[in-house]
Amino acid sequence: MPTPALLSAASALHDVFAMTRRVREDWNSGLSPENARLAHAVLGLCLRRWGRLKAWHLPKLKYPARGIPVETQIALNIGLAQLAWLPGVADYAAVAESVELLSHKRMGFKPHKGLVNALLRSASKDRGRLANELDSMPVELDQSLFAQRLLVAALQNQHSPENATALWGRLQQPASPAFVLLRGTVPDGLVSDPQFPSAWRLQSSAQFPRAWLGSGAGMVQDISSQALMDFCWPPGKKEPIHILDACAAPGGKTTALAHRWPLAQITALEQNPSRAEKLCENLAARQVSAKVEVAESTSWLKDGGHFFDLILVDAPCSASGTFRKHPELNWIFCDSDIPRLVQIQESILDAAISRLSPTGLLIYSVCSWFPQEGIGHLSRVLDRYPRLKPAPIWPTMPTGRDAALTHTFCPDPLTWDGEGFQGFALANCANSETVGDSL
Questions:
Q1: b/e per residue 57-86 (b: at least 16 CB within 10 A)
Q2: What is the dihedral of CA 245, 250, 254, 256, to 10 degrees?
Q3: What is the separation, in whole angstroms, between the first and last Cα of the chain?
Q4: Alpha helices by DSSP H, 18-126
Q5: Residue 365, SS3?
Q6: Cα-atom radius of gyration of the chain, to the nearest Å?
Q7: How many Å apart are CA 291 and CA 305, to the nearest integer?
Q8: How much is the pLDDT for 429?
Q9: pLDDT band per the 50, 70, 90 thresholds, residue 399
Q10: Cβ(338)–Cβ(288) under 8 Å?
């Protein structure tokens, strides 16, 4: 019988390769710490090296052109990943438990138990050779067309074969969580991030601080999001009274806004009811006061109401910036989704601008590497709304607030150890030529 770890990993892989769905947030719920570690390792290896695993076993099939069912591929690749890269897993366990996955009602294909058993037993005879064969294969085998376009989009004018190889290597490293201290002191095992010192990272030997997070004294938030929210409020500009977080779940940015301006009236907008419920839970645990509205952003904004002094639009996007955290995007994302997402982003931006106060500040951001989802919106907005002017609120380097300020947020993908993020800031400056004239 396969361990719960392998069953969980196989189920997640089935979602990706059979159903073309994202890995569920609760995919490993209920696992013991030991099983969770194994499941994470197996799933990560298979998702990041699926191309080379497939390239290894295809020539060994009787009819390579015909291929094998995805269920067979999952069981075979789970076994190969353990044999090649997880020396702590015994040969017998890697082979036998992977073969047993083929007996599963939903994820199995019993006729191929003999095939998988034969291939894995052969591979287990020299695990070092197996690892060398897989590691020596071209990295391009693990890159979908989407991944290749992502590298070009992320690097822009820095793109070269050398930089693409370097960035791909970074993207293949599993992301480590970053934390925010909200009150009290940080628990043992957290250390200041070397690139963004106000963020906290988990030491390799430390336990994940679930109790601390559950108490609301801290939260998980990538350093890109933390750096985005560490913007400089324009000097001379009145502190915001009415603030809108237009796409608020799960609440990290709403929390940051509330901690910075505790007396402000904050509205948090979220259209998905289940995500809105989680948003409310998170805000309550963190002792954050905000009015949560469950509604689609564009419609709610167009319905009218009072103006906001600060509007944050962290828009729906491809989430390509989370590639390290969600390597399944490599295999399931469809490029045709981006034009649709760009239209949604334009709609939300236009609606948000209509609710911006005469001296208000708008911050737009996406967790994406594709410029058409982020900075690409800037020229259209400036052309359509002459009263809006670029507002320099971020240091040119996220690592230091003493640097010159810029109105765009675009960390360098080759050096910045956070998610891919883009943003820009605009101030409503009617009848003025520059932001400074209106402050």
A1: beeeeeeeeeebebbbbbbbbbbbbbbbbe
A2: -140
A3: 68
A4: 33-48, 50-57, 70-85, 91-100, 113-124
A5: strand
A6: 24
A7: 14
A8: 86
A9: low
A10: no
Structure tokens at 303: 């319905």
Residues 6+ apart with CB under 8 A from 75: 10, 98, 99, 101, 102, 108, 112, 116
Task: Please provide residue 130's backbone torsions phi and psi, each rounded to the nearest 5 degrees.
Answer: -60, -50
Task: Evaluate whether 375 touches 431 at the Cβ level (below 8 Å).
Answer: no
Query: Which residues, 6+ apart, have CB-to-CB distance to 85 below 8 Å?
Result: 45, 131
**Contact assessment for residue 362 and residue 425, using Cβ atoms and an 8 Å cutoff:** yes
Here the tokens at position 283 are 């805000």
As beta bridge partners, residue 291 has: 267
User: How many degrees, rounded to 5, is the angle at CA 231 between CA 188 and CA 421?
Assistant: 80
Cβ proximity of 268 and 248 under 8 Å: yes
Strands 178-181, 218-220: pairing kind: antiparallel
CA distance 244 to 268: 6
Read off the pLDDT of residues 225-242 as tens digits, 9 standing for 90 and up.
999 999 999 988 899 999
Q: Supply φ then ψ for residue 200, to 5 degrees.
A: -125, 145
Q: For residue 302, give Cα distances in angstroms to 140, 340, 408, 419.
A: 46, 20, 26, 31
Residue carrying the six token digits 């294909």: 109
Phi and psi for 190 in degrees, rounded to 5? -105, 135
* Cβ 11 vs Cβ 31: under 8 Å: no
State the Cα–Cα distance between residues 161 and 175, nearest whole angstrom.
23
pTM of the model: 0.92
The single-letter code of the amino acid at 402 is D
For residues 370 and 329, the answer to whether their CB atoms sit within 8 Å is no
Classify 196 as helix, strand or coil: coil
- Name the least confident of 72-81, 260-269, 385-394, 423-432: 423-432
Tokens standing for residue 306: 């009072």
Q: Which of 370, 372, 352 is nearest to 425 (CA)?
A: 352
> What residue ranges define each of the domains in the chain, with the CATH number in brackets?
4-142 (1.10.940.10), 178-220 (no CATH), 223-438 (3.40.50.150)
